[in-house]
Amino acid sequence: MQISSMPLGYNHPAILGAVANSDNHKIIANRPALGSFPGRDWPKRLKNVLLRKGVAAPGLTQITTMMCGSCSNENAFKNIFIWYADKKRHGAPFTREEMESCMINQSPGSPRYSILSFKGAFHGRTLGSLSTTHSKYIHKIDVPAFDWPIASFPEYKYPLEENVRENKKEDERCLAEIEDLIVKYDKEKNIPVAGIIIEPIQSEGGDHHASPEFFQELRKVSSKHGAALLIDEVQTGGGPTGKMWCHEHFNLESPPDVVTFSKKMQLGGYYHTPDLKPKQSYRVYNTWMGDPSKLILLEAIVNTIEKENLLNQVVRVGDYTLGKLKDLQKEVSGKINSVRGRGTFIAFDCTTPASRDEVISKLHAKGIQAGGCGVQAVRLRPALTFNEYHADIFLDALRSILKE
Amino acid sequence: MQISSMPLGYNHPAILGAVANSDNHKIIANRPALGSFPGRDWPKRLKNVLLRKGVAAPGLTQITTMMCGSCSNENAFKNIFIWYADKKRHGAPFTREEMESCMINQSPGSPRYSILSFKGAFHGRTLGSLSTTHSKYIHKIDVPAFDWPIASFPEYKYPLEENVRENKKEDERCLAEIEDLIVKYDKEKNIPVAGIIIEPIQSEGGDHHASPEFFQELRKVSSKHGAALLIDEVQTGGGPTGKMWCHEHFNLESPPDVVTFSKKMQLGGYYHTPDLKPKQSYRVYNTWMGDPSKLILLEAIVNTIEKENLLNQVVRVGDYTLGKLKDLQKEVSGKINSVRGRGTFIAFDCTTPASRDEVISKLHAKGIQAGGCGVQAVRLRPALTFNEYHADIFLDALRSILKE
Hints:
The structure is a homodimer of 404-residue chains.
Chain A: H1 13-20, H2 25-29, H3 42-48, E1 62-66, H4 69-88, H5 96-102, E2 114-118, H6 127-130, H7 137-140, E3 150-151, H8 164-187, E4 193-198, E5 201-202, E6 208-209, H9 212-224, E7 228-232, E8 258-261, E9 268-272, H10 292-307, H11 310-331, E10 336-342, E11 345-350, H12 353-365, E12 371-373, E13 377-380, H13 388-403
Parallel strand pairs in A: 2-3, 2-4, 4-7, 7-8
Antiparallel strand pairs in A: 1-9, 5-6, 8-9, 10-11, 11-13, 12-13
């Protein structure tokens, strides 16, 4: 599904219909600079689509549209830095020294603030977002990076139900490390942590899950230290976990400060709290600030998700597929392990990177496109329209490969 | 023109026709992940549109597509860093230390390389490109930046023909400063300059021009010090200076190593030399790597530019407008100055920021959308279809405002 970016598969009639509708052709032909010259109906379109109840990330009322996942994270970082700096100067106006020093990339105008990220994370590949990406060396080598703190993401033992105590300890270890890093970077390195970025499921890094309790505590740690919590839903957002946003599974005490998205949402962007809205214009800005032609596609998509109850289908088919995969894990004992997932956002590990690549290549020969992630995981990223019939085709093919 | 991003104005029949053509609807509806799953005809489409003779930047055979101007510059930086690092290690494989240190943002894997940029420059707003942007403090304040060198861009006295000697000296001053900075950052700060980024006309910063001789020497300085030369044509590219790429006016001894684009080209991207192509896969990569639906629009645009000889029209109408503006500059002596431009990419200065804002606001009241840039400049960024009739409407309105 084009790296998890097609929510309804190919040639869905709702999307083709939106593109064929001549009312939409002028929107596709005349791309505006949304930051300065939005079309008259742009606010209404945002309300009806991205801010619609059931689509918007719960509790977040503000939306900023962008182009792709990397630039959504980069601009969300900027929103966080601007908010953090305003807190630090207690709302006072910029000093002359700040205004002048930033023009030559020096502090205090260009401050040494940081974003804390996690080992194994993937948040994009432009220079800011790449400084928070730590999934594969080939993404990062030879490219300059900011000296920002990197904490451990929980590494659980599977099956979860047999390793409850150990995995709870792992949560505690990681949370303690996060707090230590925040204090160390602030006090020792003079690089305060303005925000924390985390995926609700580390996707590119290997489909690493963390518990709702971990995320609940992370929300508290983040607030306690005055750092914004950014949940990166670029790969998990838009329905594949059975909720519109994966972090809805976590029952956080209060919403994250920022939720970024792209891929299945067709355009990039982020939801955020009113606090994070800059007080001055032109601070988070670029020529296009998104693309109304993508909102046309997204409107058809979210209408279809609602009309066809696709989130319920994802839960049902996800449970079915996960259950069958767990059965298969026992059946082929030792050949695959750590079957895990939410909705149809499912993965399992092979025993070596080579055996993983072999499984993917043999699936491919049978007409099934699957992807690898992390060191030796196979990940499933079907469209939301994936059903039991499709699951059975996949499961039969996988069984016969593993039994060979 | 939506911040110089609409080459043919609104609702051009060629663009509307391309969008209405049902052959194109599946391309708009099914956006691929171009880096891994390009459509069968994607290479042909790239050859026919972006790499077409008369469209491609002369001498550059390689194309990488992206989403917007910022991410084009960011990814071009990465290409430059990768090329530079490979030169430094004489083509040897990565060391274990490099592979491990880059995962935690530390050298040698995350090296302290830099991109040299210029005072007054604008290259985008994500964290890497923002480190090379120096046009207005509000773009930069409170956002961390890399410590990269910043050189003076020539500041000329106008009219040029009366200040030849002085302006030549200014070129020499800036070129000497560039060489000094390259040496200083390498030897004293241990932050080698891997590349130089420059606009052929500093646009957002105030429509600052530099001479062809300056750019010719810059090309030599860049090669001499082993740094790649990146010409950022995001605002100047696509025809407004009367050539497809503004740097074609400069008669460089050899082509720049990279030319980035966006805006009028509908999608982002860059042309580059074969040397800059990374030897390994997945180093410059992201989910979408551009957008075929934008190439549909661009194809209609470049066909129209050819068929209607629009580059010739830009030269003719640009000369006409520039001549009339120079006459007007004399006529209203002292009220505007430094009339300058190439093609219809024209600007003039007012005497104060306030008088500039007043001119723009009064033009607006007469139904004319003009933009400000730099401290007190008014910039013209019409579509390529702008003709003498439109120029006269603008010139009459401006004359009556300046005479009031």
